[in-house]
Amino acid sequence: MQITARVRWSITLTKPSLKAEKSTSSQHTAETIKVLVEELERLKTHLNIGHELTLKYLPNKNVKLSGEVKGECLYIYEEDEKCALTTLRHEFVDYVICKVIEPYEKLANLLISLSNEEAYAKKEMLIGALASVV
User: Fold this and answer.
1) How many CA atoms lie within 13 A of 66 on its CB side?
2) Quick one: pLDDT at residue 85?
3) pLDDT average per 10 residues of sequence, the chain (134 residues)
4) Cβ neighbours of residue 6 closer than 8 Å, sequence gap 6 or more
5) 78 in helix, strand or coil?
6) What is the side-by-side strand order in the sheet with 67-70?
7) Exposed (0-12), middle (13-18) or buried (19+): which is 112, by Cβ within 10 Å?
8) Which pLDDT belongs to residue 25?
9) Quick one: which of 34, 72, 78, 90 could link to 84 by a disulfide (CB 3.0–4.6 Å)?
10) CA of 17: how far to CAs of 20, 48, 65, in Å?
11) CA distance 61 to 51
């Protein structure tokens, strides 16, 4: 029997339970998009990382997540501009931290894989030895 484990880091920010009045006008949405894009560009420039990230603003009160990163796209679901900005910053920081620890994640998974192979080989040797005795 071979056992495998994968190391994966993930932090998800969920929507706060407090409800706020939210504007659904397209002007409000356009202004929020502008603010979010400017903040994302500010973070990229200031930290000089994450330049590959794109942004999709999909305000939806029915989604349980405030935001997430899929591949190289940062999705923001919060309708409220202040909450959307907080979510953008959170997801950006989560993304760049994951990029930094990615080599360690790969190394840990490689070590686990090698240990699994070694344990399997030893187990098969023991089974062979025991089978010849029985």
Assistant:
1) 21
2) 97
3) 39 39 64 96 96 94 91 95 96 94 93 92 91 86
4) 109, 112
5) coil
6) 54-57, 73-76, 67-70
7) middle
8) 59
9) 78
10) 10, 34, 12
11) 29
